[in-house]
Specification:
- The complex is a heterodimer of chains A (94) and B (252).
- Chain A is built from three helices and five strands; from the N terminus they run ββββαααβ.
- In chain A, strand 2 and strand 3 form a beta hairpin.
- The longest helix of chain A is centred in the C-terminal third of the chain and has 14 residues.
- With 252 residues, chain B is α+β, with helices and mostly antiparallel strands.
- Helix content of chain B is 29%, strand content 31%.
- Chain B contains six helices and 15 strands.
- In chain B, strands 5, 6, 7, 8, 9, 12, 13, 14 and 15 form a nine-stranded mixed beta sheet that branches. Chain B has a four-stranded mixed beta sheet with strand order 1-2-3-4, with helices on one face.
- In chain B, strand 1 and strand 2 form a beta hairpin.
- Chain B is globular.
- Classes of the chains: A alpha+beta (94), B alpha+beta (252).
- Chains A and B meet through strand 2, strand 3 and strand 4 of A and helix 4 and helix 5 of B.
C-alpha cells in the first residue's frame, strides 16, 4: 500500500548564500535574510523531505523544542512557504 | 560628433559599452554640441556603431529637457547592454587618484550620491554618480556621466560636465562599499554589516542582479574584497568624506 506524503522542498531560487551563521536567499527578485532556524531548515532540504524527517534534523542541531516538535517545524516551514523560499511537493512513500 | 542636415550623432563609451546618441530633428547639431560638453568624459573617437540611443527633436524641444532625459536613456541602454556581465550598483563611484581604490556610495535617489560625488570630486576621481559597474575581477567599469543637479526654481536638472580626473591606466578597483542613509544625523554613524546583511542591503540597489551566475556568491565575493559593507548615517556630504578617510586610515 502506498500513501502520498507532502514533502517540503526548496523552490527554484536564483541563489542562496550562507556564511555559516546567517543565510540569505534570493527569491522572487528579493534577498531575504533567514533566521538561524530557518537557515537550518533550508540547508536540510537539499532534497524534499517530509516534515517528520525535517523535525528530527532540527532536534539534532537545536535540541527538543519547548512545545510540540511537529507544530514548531510546521510553523517554520509555513513561513518559508509563504515567503516563496519553500514549497510543498507531492511525495509517495511505501 | 557627426552632423548631417537635421541629424547628428555623438559617440559615447560608458560602463564598458559603446553608445551612439542619434539626434534627429531641428536643432540636432546644436543639441549635439551641448551633449559633447556635458558628456565630455564619456566621448569616444572610434566609429563602432554601439548601442543606439535615439532622441527625436521638434522645433519646440527645450534643450535642457532633452539633456535631462538623455541621462536616464543612456543609463538604461548601458545597463541593459551589461546585464549578466557586470554587478551594477546604484551608486556614486569615487576613486583614490593615486591607487585607483574605489568607493561605491550606494543608495536610492535622494540619499545624496550626486551631492557627495560633487563635493568629494576634488579629493577623489569621479567615476559616476549613477551606476558603479563591477567586473568579475573586481575592477570598475567607469560611467562618468554628467552630474544631474537640481537647482531651486529650475524646471530641469542641470547636466553639469563630469569633474576632470587624471587617467589611471592600471584600472580602478573596488575598495569600499558604503550604503548612504541621509537621515539627518549630525554625528556620523557608521554601522558595519555582516556579509549576509550586506547582500540584503545592496541587492535592492542593483540592476539585473538575477541575470548573473550565482549572483549572491558573486556579490559576496566583492563585499569581502571591499572589506565589508557599512551603512553611513549622516546629514552633510562632508561627513561621508570624513567617514571614508577614517575607514581608509583604519585599513592602512
Amino acid at each position: 500500500m502506498s500513501a502520498a506524503t507532502p514533502l517540503a522542498g526548496r523552490t527554484a531560487w536564483t541563489d542562496w548564500y550562507s556564511d555559516g551563521v546567517e543565510t540569505a536567499v534570493f527569491v522572487r527578485d528579493q534577498v531575504l535574510v533567514l533566521s538561524t532556524l530557518a537557515g537550518a531548515v533550508v540547508a536540510a532540504l537539499e532534497e524534499p523531505r517530509p516534515l517528520a524527517d525535517l523535525g528530527a534534523v532540527l532536534v539534532e542541531q537545536f535540541g527538543e523544542p519547548e512545545g510540540d516538535l511537529a507544530e514548531a517545524t510546521a510553523a517554520v516551514v509555513a513561513d518559508l512557504v509563504e515567503s516563496g523560499v519553500l514549497a510543498w511537493f507531492d511525495g509517495t512513500t511505501t | 560628433m557627426a552632423t548631417a542636415g537635421d541629424s547628428a550623432e555623438v559617440r559615447l563609451h560608458a560602463l564598458d559599452t559603446d553608445v551612439t546618441v542619434e539626434l534627429r530633428g531641428p536643432g540636432a547639431a546644436e543639441v549635439a554640441s551641448a551633449v559633447v560638453v556635458a558628456w565630455a568624459r564619456c566621448l569616444r573617437d572610434d566609429d563602432s556603431p554601439g548601442v543606439a540611443v535615439v532622441v527625436e527633436l521638434t522645433r519646440d524641444s527645450d534643450r535642457r529637457a532633452v539633456l535631462e532625459r538623455l541621462s536616464p536613456q543612456v543609463t538604461q541602454a548601458v545597463i541593459e547592454a551589461r546585464a549578466g556581465q557586470l554587478v551594477m550598483l546604484h551608486a556614486a563611484g569615487l576613486a583614490d587618484p593615486r591607487t585607483g581604490a574605489t568607493w561605491a556610495l550606494v543608495g536610492p535617489s535622494g540619499m545624496g550620491k550626486t551631492t557627495a560625488a560633487r563635493f568629494l570630486s576634488g579629493a577623489y576621481s569621479y567615476l559616476t554618480d549613477e551606476t558603479v559597474g563591477i567586473r568579475s575581477d573586481g575592477t570598475i567599469a567607469p560611467y562618468p556621466k554628467p552630474l544631474s543637479v537640481r537647482y531651486a526654481g529650475e524646471p530641469f536638472k542641470a547636466q553639469e560636465p563630469a569633474p576632470e580626473a587624471p587617467p589611471f591606466p592600471p584600472g580602478y578597483r573596488l575598495a569600499g562599499l558604503l550604503v548612504l542613509d541621509r537621515d539627518g544625523s549630525e554625528t556620523t554613524v557608521v554601522e558595519e554589516l555582516s556579509v549576509v546583511r550586506g547582500l540584503a542591503a545592496l541587492a535592492p540597489e542593483t540592476s539585473f542582479l538575477s541575470r548573473l551566475p550565482r549572483p549572491l556568491h558573486l556579490l559576496a565575493g566583492h563585499i569581502e574584497r571591499a572589506g565589508g559593507v557599512r551603512v553611513v548615517r549622516y546629514r552633510e556630504a562632508a561627513q561621508v568624506g570624513e567617514a571614508m578617510a577614517t575607514l581608509r586610515n583604519e585599513v592602512a
